[in-house]
Amino acid sequence: MANTVPDFARVENGALAGKFLKKFWQPIALSRDYDPGKARRIQVLGEHFTLYRGEDGEIRLTQDRCPHRGTSLAYGWVEGNSIRCRYHGWKFDGAGKGEDFPAETATYASRICLKTYPTREYLGMVFAYFGDETPPTFWKFPELEDESRGELLAQAVVLPYNHFQRIENDHDEVHAHYTHNFMPMFGLTELPKMSARETEYGMVSIATRSDGSRFDSHCFMPNILYREVPIPQDTTKMAIHFACRVPIDDVSMLSFMVNRVGSYDKEAERLASAEDYAELTRRVMNCEITLEDVDPAHPLLPIIQDTVSIGGQGAIVDREQENLGQSDVGIAMLRRIWAREMKAIAEGTPPKQWYRPEDFSFSVRALEVIQEVNGG
Question: Of 181-190, 193-202, 245-254, which gets the smallest average pLDDT?
Fold first, then answer.
């Protein structure tokens, strides 16, 4: 690589970061947005695809363009579990096999098929695998499957900057004292001491304070955040939080977020539309208003705040101009792991095989971390 800092940002046109992400299952949509018979065009990792739900309720993902004349299949319609192209009526089944090519012979039709991709639904999200190899083990998060923890809240927002900046921010505890300023409501006014270590599933960054409080931010490779956080939808307790940062292209991303919430204002959540969020963010970044002018009860306030700070770095930050400090150890470790794995891909050597240990839990991991930080 020509630069001192590897290119973690770019995922299009065969970039190494894109190849790395394709080795993992990625969320691509919210399940609730797809009724049977509905097809949509989506963009992930710089490429377009067609996503639809058949009459059997199963989600299917195919290449975007019809192999006949290149029109997006998303503009066609779903027939049973198949999809038919709007342009000339070519029809393909859910596995991509050609079923009906009007004006063509059956022999011709039998030779043409679509590329399809494995999908599965979990925690209110649609996941897909884009790699060429056998899909890896699908990450499970049983803590979020537990309905006794409350109602499942799954969200997705489009963010106007590079995915890796958002992943880095997931391991920056100090920013919460300034970008969000919600730590005092939990009695946390002291800036944390940061540490980090690699794990079987990825890495964990640890924020400790002299009062004994601690926050662990787990990264399930390569782009999943798993931790406890305060969320505006339920201020009565900390919530287990899943977030995955998926590139749309090099300069925009989808942020998927899942929590179990005891109680929250569904109407306020509905009213906080993507347009509302985007317009408020635009006004702050144009210095028309400040973050202090945004309604503190806005359910997407943390996202607006983060977008101002992270988007303020530019669509793709210039890491050559940075000066990392001691509070950035989690970010530094994240970069080292990604750089190592990308190097393995470039050299054709096996990357690390990640897995979630059977004994994983927030409390067990926290105890181990405290012992390590204290030299025990």
Answer: 181-190
Helix (H) or strand (E) holding 237: strand 234-249
Q: Which CATH architecture has domain 145-373?
A: Alpha-Beta Complex (3.90)
Query: Where, residue-wise, is CATH 3.90.380 in the chain?
Result: 145-373
The Cα-based distances of 65 to 26, 71, 310, 342 in angstroms read: 21, 5, 34, 30
* SS3 annotation, 28-43: EEEHHHCCCCCEEEEE
The CATH superfamily holding the domain 32-122 is Rieske [2Fe-2S] iron-sulphur domain (2.102.10.10)
Residues 65-75: tens digit of each pLDDT:
999 999 999 99
pLDDT tens-digit map of 227-242: 987 666 666 667 789 9
Is residue 192 within 8 A of residue 352, CB to CB? The reply is: no
Neighbours of 150 (CB within 10 A): 18
Q: What pTM was computed for the model?
A: 0.90
User: CA–CA distance from 101 to each of 49, 71, 108, 114 (Å)?
Assistant: 21, 15, 8, 13
Q: Within the chain, which residue ranges are assigned CATH 2.102.10.10?
A: 32-122
Query: What is the rounded CA–CA span in Å between residue 262 and residue 344?
Result: 43
CB 59 within 8 A of CB 74: no
Dist CA 126 CA 140 (whole Å): 14
